[in-house]
Input
Amino acid sequence: MKISINGLHKAFESRIRLGVMSALAVNDELDFNALKEYLDVTDGNLASHLKGLEKEAFIGVEKSFVGRKPNTKYFMTKEGKEAFNDHLKALEKLIRGVAE
Output
């Protein structure tokens, strides 16, 4: 029996990137600290994965100030939603293929 791994997006292979996209899929936007808390990762680790997703144009960034403190919010772009949904469909297809 063969199973297909076609359709899985390489950008989501990291558990942290998968976590970021999952968190942003159910929240309109999240700031850096909220994502860090959700995923229980270090600043540097989260920042590098966010940069990777931003480079792919799967997430957008909105910078502002809350009082005197900088605040960076992240949201999923239209391209990100499409790519993430395609990735989830491919995962579901893969799991069904293994289960049959």
